[in-house]
Amino acid sequence: MSDSFGALLRAHRLAAELTIEGLSHASGVSVRAIGDMERGVSRGPQGRTVAALAEALRLSQAGRDALLAAARVGRPRAAPSTAGICELPRGVGDFTGRERELGVLRDLATRRSRADDAAAIATISGTAGMGKTALAVHAAGQLADLFPDGRFFLDLRGMDAAPLTSSNGLSRLLRALGVAERSIPADEQERAGHYRALLRERRCLIVLDNAESESHVRPLLPGDGPSMILITSRRPLAGLEGVHQIPLAQLAEPEAAALLRAIVGEARSEAEPDAVGELARLCGHLPLAMRIAGNRLQSRPGWTIRQLTGRLGDEDHRLDALTAGDLHVAAAFALSYEQLTPIAR
Q1: Do the bridges between strand 151-155 and strand 205-209 make them parallel or antiparallel, or are there none, so unpaired?
Q2: What pLDDT digit, counting tens, does each position of 72-115 carry?
Q3: pLDDT at residue 1, as a whole number
Q4: pLDDT of residue 118
Protein backbone atom coordinates (compact mmCIF):
# COMPACT_ATOMS: atom_id res chain seq x y z
CA MET A 1 0.00 0.00 0.00
CA SER A 2 2.87 2.41 0.84
CA ASP A 3 4.17 2.26 -2.72
CA SER A 4 0.75 2.43 -4.46
CA PHE A 5 1.21 6.10 -5.42
CA GLY A 6 4.52 5.37 -7.16
CA ALA A 7 3.09 2.38 -9.02
CA LEU A 8 0.04 4.38 -10.12
CA LEU A 9 2.15 7.32 -11.28
CA ARG A 10 4.43 5.06 -13.30
CA ALA A 11 1.44 3.32 -14.92
CA HIS A 12 -0.05 6.68 -15.97
CA ARG A 13 3.31 7.88 -17.29
CA LEU A 14 3.85 4.77 -19.39
CA ALA A 15 0.27 4.94 -20.69
CA ALA A 16 0.96 8.53 -21.77
CA GLU A 17 4.16 7.32 -23.50
CA LEU A 18 6.28 9.78 -21.54
CA THR A 19 9.77 9.35 -20.16
CA ILE A 20 10.51 10.68 -16.68
CA GLU A 21 12.32 13.57 -18.37
CA GLY A 22 9.29 14.25 -20.55
CA LEU A 23 6.94 14.27 -17.58
CA SER A 24 9.32 16.56 -15.71
CA HIS A 25 9.37 19.03 -18.61
CA ALA A 26 5.58 19.00 -18.90
CA SER A 27 4.82 19.28 -15.17
CA GLY A 28 7.67 21.38 -13.79
CA VAL A 29 8.38 18.66 -11.20
CA SER A 30 12.06 17.69 -11.13
CA VAL A 31 13.32 14.46 -12.67
CA ARG A 32 14.73 13.46 -9.29
CA ALA A 33 11.44 14.04 -7.49
CA ILE A 34 9.48 11.98 -10.04
CA GLY A 35 12.03 9.18 -9.82
CA ASP A 36 11.78 9.22 -6.01
CA MET A 37 7.98 8.97 -6.25
CA GLU A 38 8.02 6.05 -8.65
CA ARG A 39 10.60 4.17 -6.55
CA GLY A 40 8.57 4.70 -3.39
CA VAL A 41 11.14 6.96 -1.72
CA SER A 42 8.59 9.78 -1.73
CA ARG A 43 5.24 8.14 -1.01
CA GLY A 44 2.98 11.07 -0.18
CA PRO A 45 3.72 14.17 -2.28
CA GLN A 46 1.86 17.39 -1.60
CA GLY A 47 -1.39 18.20 -3.37
CA ARG A 48 0.07 20.91 -5.64
CA THR A 49 2.73 18.46 -6.88
CA VAL A 50 0.11 15.79 -7.60
CA ALA A 51 -2.05 18.37 -9.39
CA ALA A 52 0.86 19.41 -11.63
CA LEU A 53 1.57 15.77 -12.52
CA ALA A 54 -2.10 15.04 -13.21
CA GLU A 55 -2.33 18.07 -15.49
CA ALA A 56 0.78 17.03 -17.43
CA LEU A 57 -0.58 13.48 -17.77
CA ARG A 58 -3.96 14.84 -18.92
CA LEU A 59 -5.81 12.60 -16.50
CA SER A 60 -9.58 12.49 -16.29
CA GLN A 61 -11.23 13.76 -13.12
CA ALA A 62 -11.51 10.17 -11.89
CA GLY A 63 -7.82 9.62 -12.60
CA ARG A 64 -6.87 12.80 -10.73
CA ASP A 65 -8.98 11.81 -7.74
CA ALA A 66 -7.38 8.36 -7.64
CA LEU A 67 -3.87 9.83 -7.80
CA LEU A 68 -4.65 12.32 -5.00
CA ALA A 69 -6.15 9.55 -2.87
CA ALA A 70 -3.04 7.40 -3.33
CA ALA A 71 -0.87 10.35 -2.26
CA ARG A 72 -2.96 10.85 0.88
CA VAL A 73 -2.56 7.17 1.79
CA GLY A 74 1.20 7.65 1.55
CA ARG A 75 1.18 10.34 4.24
CA PRO A 76 0.96 8.45 7.53
CA ARG A 77 -0.63 10.28 10.42
CA ALA A 78 0.73 10.07 13.93
CA ALA A 79 -1.39 8.18 16.39
CA PRO A 80 -3.27 10.50 18.77
CA SER A 81 -1.14 9.32 21.69
CA THR A 82 2.08 10.50 20.00
CA ALA A 83 0.83 13.71 18.40
CA GLY A 84 2.84 16.70 19.57
CA ILE A 85 5.80 14.71 20.93
CA CYS A 86 9.06 15.97 19.36
CA GLU A 87 7.06 18.11 16.95
CA LEU A 88 9.05 20.37 14.61
CA PRO A 89 9.03 24.00 15.77
CA ARG A 90 7.49 26.75 13.71
CA GLY A 91 9.59 27.56 10.67
CA VAL A 92 10.68 31.02 9.53
CA GLY A 93 8.36 32.14 6.74
CA ASP A 94 10.88 34.55 5.23
CA PHE A 95 13.86 32.18 5.36
CA THR A 96 16.43 33.43 2.86
CA GLY A 97 19.72 32.11 1.48
CA ARG A 98 21.69 28.95 2.28
CA GLU A 99 20.85 27.52 -1.15
CA ARG A 100 24.12 25.59 -1.36
CA GLU A 101 23.62 23.98 2.04
CA LEU A 102 19.99 23.10 1.24
CA GLY A 103 21.14 21.50 -2.00
CA VAL A 104 23.73 19.41 -0.15
CA LEU A 105 21.08 18.19 2.30
CA ARG A 106 18.65 17.27 -0.47
CA ASP A 107 21.36 15.35 -2.33
CA LEU A 108 22.26 13.52 0.87
CA ALA A 109 18.60 12.67 1.56
CA THR A 110 17.92 11.34 -1.94
CA ARG A 111 21.15 9.35 -2.32
CA ARG A 112 20.50 7.14 0.69
CA SER A 113 17.02 5.75 0.39
CA ARG A 114 17.30 1.95 0.80
CA ALA A 115 17.02 -0.03 4.03
CA ASP A 116 20.52 -1.49 3.57
CA ASP A 117 22.16 1.93 3.24
CA ALA A 118 23.69 3.65 6.25
CA ALA A 119 21.35 6.36 7.53
CA ALA A 120 22.09 9.85 6.20
CA ILE A 121 23.57 12.04 8.94
CA ALA A 122 24.66 15.67 8.68
CA THR A 123 25.98 18.12 11.26
CA ILE A 124 25.25 21.82 10.87
CA SER A 125 27.79 23.72 12.97
CA GLY A 126 28.63 27.36 13.57
CA THR A 127 28.86 30.08 16.17
CA ALA A 128 25.91 31.64 17.96
CA GLY A 129 23.36 33.40 15.80
CA MET A 130 24.39 31.72 12.55
CA GLY A 131 20.93 30.28 11.86
CA LYS A 132 21.72 26.60 12.41
CA THR A 133 18.33 25.64 13.83
CA ALA A 134 16.47 27.75 11.26
CA LEU A 135 18.33 25.97 8.46
CA ALA A 136 17.64 22.51 9.90
CA VAL A 137 13.92 23.22 10.38
CA HIS A 138 13.62 24.78 6.92
CA ALA A 139 15.36 21.78 5.35
CA ALA A 140 13.01 19.44 7.21
CA GLY A 141 10.09 21.28 5.65
CA GLN A 142 11.56 21.13 2.15
CA LEU A 143 12.29 17.41 2.47
CA ALA A 144 8.88 16.43 3.84
CA ASP A 145 7.95 14.37 0.77
CA LEU A 146 11.00 12.16 1.22
CA PHE A 147 10.18 11.24 4.83
CA PRO A 148 6.54 10.13 5.00
CA ASP A 149 7.02 8.25 8.30
CA GLY A 150 7.51 11.45 10.27
CA ARG A 151 9.75 14.41 11.01
CA PHE A 152 10.78 15.00 14.61
CA PHE A 153 12.70 17.61 16.60
CA LEU A 154 14.61 17.15 19.85
CA ASP A 155 16.31 20.03 21.69
CA LEU A 156 19.33 18.53 23.44
CA ARG A 157 19.96 21.80 25.33
CA GLY A 158 23.70 21.37 24.87
CA MET A 159 24.55 24.88 26.08
CA ASP A 160 22.50 24.59 29.28
CA ALA A 161 24.07 23.89 32.66
CA ALA A 162 22.26 20.52 32.62
CA PRO A 163 21.83 19.28 29.01
CA LEU A 164 19.19 16.69 28.15
CA THR A 165 20.71 13.26 28.74
CA SER A 166 20.98 10.79 25.87
CA SER A 167 18.81 8.34 27.81
CA ASN A 168 16.00 10.86 28.22
CA GLY A 169 16.39 11.88 24.59
CA LEU A 170 15.97 8.27 23.47
CA SER A 171 12.86 7.95 25.62
CA ARG A 172 11.25 11.00 24.01
CA LEU A 173 12.10 9.86 20.50
CA LEU A 174 10.75 6.36 21.14
CA ARG A 175 7.48 7.84 22.39
CA ALA A 176 7.32 10.05 19.29
CA LEU A 177 7.82 6.91 17.17
CA GLY A 178 4.78 5.32 18.80
CA VAL A 179 6.34 3.22 21.56
CA ALA A 180 4.21 3.17 24.71
CA GLU A 181 6.03 4.56 27.74
CA ARG A 182 5.64 1.28 29.65
CA SER A 183 7.38 -0.53 26.76
CA ILE A 184 10.50 1.67 26.74
CA PRO A 185 13.48 -0.25 28.16
CA ALA A 186 15.08 1.11 31.33
CA ASP A 187 18.62 0.41 30.10
CA GLU A 188 20.05 3.09 27.78
CA GLN A 189 21.75 0.61 25.45
CA GLU A 190 18.51 -1.33 25.06
CA ARG A 191 16.67 1.91 24.35
CA ALA A 192 19.23 2.77 21.66
CA GLY A 193 18.88 -0.70 20.12
CA HIS A 194 15.09 -0.43 20.01
CA TYR A 195 15.39 3.04 18.46
CA ARG A 196 17.78 1.85 15.75
CA ALA A 197 15.57 -1.15 14.96
CA LEU A 198 12.56 1.11 14.42
CA LEU A 199 14.45 3.52 12.15
CA ARG A 200 15.78 0.62 10.07
CA GLU A 201 12.24 0.13 8.78
CA ARG A 202 11.06 3.75 8.58
CA ARG A 203 11.77 6.87 6.56
CA CYS A 204 11.98 9.52 9.27
CA LEU A 205 13.84 12.82 9.48
CA ILE A 206 15.03 13.75 12.97
CA VAL A 207 16.55 17.09 13.97
CA LEU A 208 18.84 16.80 17.00
CA ASP A 209 19.26 20.44 17.96
CA ASN A 210 21.97 22.03 20.07
CA ALA A 211 24.24 19.04 20.70
CA GLU A 212 26.95 19.53 23.32
CA SER A 213 29.52 16.99 22.07
CA GLU A 214 30.02 13.80 20.10
CA SER A 215 29.31 11.60 23.13
CA HIS A 216 26.12 13.56 23.81
CA VAL A 217 24.63 12.73 20.40
CA ARG A 218 26.23 9.39 19.44
CA PRO A 219 23.60 7.17 21.20
CA LEU A 220 20.87 8.96 19.23
CA LEU A 221 22.27 8.07 15.80
CA PRO A 222 20.68 5.23 13.80
CA GLY A 223 22.62 2.54 11.95
CA ASP A 224 21.24 1.24 8.66
CA GLY A 225 17.99 2.44 7.16
CA PRO A 226 16.43 5.16 5.02
CA SER A 227 16.11 7.78 7.79
CA MET A 228 18.04 11.05 8.03
CA ILE A 229 19.46 12.86 11.05
CA LEU A 230 20.29 16.58 11.13
CA ILE A 231 22.45 17.65 14.08
CA THR A 232 23.06 21.27 15.02
CA SER A 233 25.87 22.30 17.32
CA ARG A 234 28.13 25.24 18.08
CA ARG A 235 31.00 22.75 17.92
CA PRO A 236 32.05 20.97 14.71
CA LEU A 237 31.64 17.45 16.24
CA ALA A 238 34.53 16.28 14.05
CA GLY A 239 34.79 13.00 15.99
CA LEU A 240 31.52 11.60 14.61
CA GLU A 241 32.09 8.86 12.05
CA GLY A 242 30.38 8.72 8.64
CA VAL A 243 28.80 12.15 9.05
CA HIS A 244 28.54 14.92 6.46
CA GLN A 245 29.86 18.17 7.92
CA ILE A 246 28.14 21.46 7.00
CA PRO A 247 29.88 24.40 8.70
CA LEU A 248 27.97 27.68 8.51
CA ALA A 249 29.60 31.06 8.00
CA GLN A 250 28.04 34.51 7.84
CA LEU A 251 25.71 35.08 4.92
CA ALA A 252 27.21 36.40 1.70
CA GLU A 253 26.51 40.08 1.04
CA PRO A 254 23.66 39.50 -1.46
CA GLU A 255 22.01 36.92 0.82
CA ALA A 256 22.30 39.24 3.81
CA ALA A 257 20.67 42.11 1.93
CA ALA A 258 17.95 39.77 0.64
CA LEU A 259 17.16 38.62 4.19
CA LEU A 260 16.80 42.19 5.43
CA ARG A 261 14.55 43.07 2.48
CA ALA A 262 12.38 40.02 3.20
CA ILE A 263 11.92 41.11 6.82
CA VAL A 264 11.56 44.85 6.33
CA GLY A 265 9.58 44.75 3.09
CA GLU A 266 10.43 45.73 -0.46
CA ALA A 267 8.85 49.22 -0.35
CA ARG A 268 10.89 50.33 2.63
CA SER A 269 14.07 48.69 1.33
CA GLU A 270 13.75 50.25 -2.14
CA ALA A 271 13.43 53.70 -0.54
CA GLU A 272 16.92 53.29 1.03
CA PRO A 273 18.83 50.67 -0.99
CA ASP A 274 22.27 51.78 0.20
CA ALA A 275 21.16 51.76 3.83
CA VAL A 276 20.12 48.08 3.54
CA GLY A 277 23.69 47.06 2.66
CA GLU A 278 25.10 49.25 5.43
CA LEU A 279 22.75 47.73 8.00
CA ALA A 280 23.76 44.21 6.91
CA ARG A 281 27.43 45.19 7.29
CA LEU A 282 26.89 46.59 10.79
CA CYS A 283 25.16 43.31 11.70
CA GLY A 284 28.22 41.40 10.52
CA HIS A 285 26.00 39.50 8.03
CA LEU A 286 24.98 37.41 11.04
CA PRO A 287 21.43 36.03 10.56
CA LEU A 288 20.35 36.54 14.19
CA ALA A 289 21.60 40.14 14.24
CA MET A 290 19.83 40.94 10.97
CA ARG A 291 16.65 39.27 12.21
CA ILE A 292 16.71 41.49 15.29
CA ALA A 293 17.48 44.64 13.27
CA GLY A 294 14.70 43.85 10.81
CA ASN A 295 12.22 43.16 13.61
CA ARG A 296 13.08 46.47 15.26
CA LEU A 297 12.33 48.29 12.02
CA GLN A 298 9.07 46.36 11.58
CA SER A 299 7.94 47.39 15.06
CA ARG A 300 8.86 51.05 14.40
CA PRO A 301 7.27 52.03 11.08
CA GLY A 302 8.27 55.66 11.67
CA TRP A 303 11.99 54.86 11.68
CA THR A 304 14.11 55.01 8.56
CA ILE A 305 16.77 52.37 7.98
CA ARG A 306 19.36 55.12 8.29
CA GLN A 307 18.14 55.92 11.79
CA LEU A 308 18.84 52.36 12.88
CA THR A 309 22.26 52.27 11.21
CA GLY A 310 23.05 55.44 13.12
CA ARG A 311 22.20 53.75 16.42
CA LEU A 312 24.39 50.78 15.50
CA GLY A 313 27.34 52.94 14.50
CA ASP A 314 28.74 53.02 18.05
CA GLU A 315 30.69 49.75 18.40
CA ASP A 316 30.75 49.97 22.19
CA HIS A 317 26.95 49.87 22.39
CA ARG A 318 26.11 47.88 19.26
CA LEU A 319 25.34 44.61 21.06
CA ASP A 320 23.02 46.44 23.46
CA ALA A 321 21.16 47.95 20.50
CA LEU A 322 20.70 44.57 18.79
CA THR A 323 17.72 43.60 20.91
CA ALA A 324 14.10 43.02 19.92
CA GLY A 325 11.72 41.69 22.54
CA ASP A 326 13.22 38.47 23.88
CA LEU A 327 15.79 38.25 21.07
CA HIS A 328 19.28 39.36 22.13
CA VAL A 329 22.54 38.92 20.22
CA ALA A 330 24.50 39.39 23.45
CA ALA A 331 22.55 36.62 25.21
CA ALA A 332 23.25 34.18 22.39
CA PHE A 333 26.99 34.80 22.62
CA ALA A 334 26.95 34.76 26.44
CA LEU A 335 26.15 31.04 26.46
CA SER A 336 29.27 30.29 24.42
CA TYR A 337 31.34 32.76 26.44
CA GLU A 338 30.48 31.01 29.70
CA GLN A 339 31.81 27.71 28.29
CA LEU A 340 35.30 29.18 27.71
CA THR A 341 38.33 29.06 29.97
CA PRO A 342 39.34 32.40 31.58
CA ILE A 343 42.25 32.79 29.11
CA ALA A 344 40.01 32.12 26.11
CA ARG A 345 37.47 34.65 27.37
Answers
A1: parallel
A2: 876 655 444 456 789 999 888 888 889 999 999 999 998 765 44
A3: 37
A4: 85
* 3-state SS, residue 121: strand
We report the CATH number of the domain holding residue 167 as: 3.40.50.300
Q: What angle do CA 332, 334, 340 make, to 5 degrees?
A: 125
Give the Cα separation of 130 and 98 in Å (integer). Answer: 11
Do residues 250 and 256 touch, judged by C-beta distance below 8 A?
Answer: yes
State the DSSP code for 28. Answer: -
Q: Please check whether residues 131 and 155 belong to one and the same domain.
A: yes
Give the containing element (helix H, strand E) for 230. strand 228-233
Do 261 and 237 lie in one domain? The reply is: no
Question: DSSP character for 162?
Answer: S
Q: Residue 264 corresponds to which amino acid?
A: V
**Three-class secondary structure of residue 238 per DSSP:** coil
DSSP lists the bridge partners of residue 151 as: 205
pTM: 0.71
- Enumerate residues 6+ apart whose C-beta is below 8 A from 304: 271, 272, 275
Residue 177 and residue 309 in one domain:
no
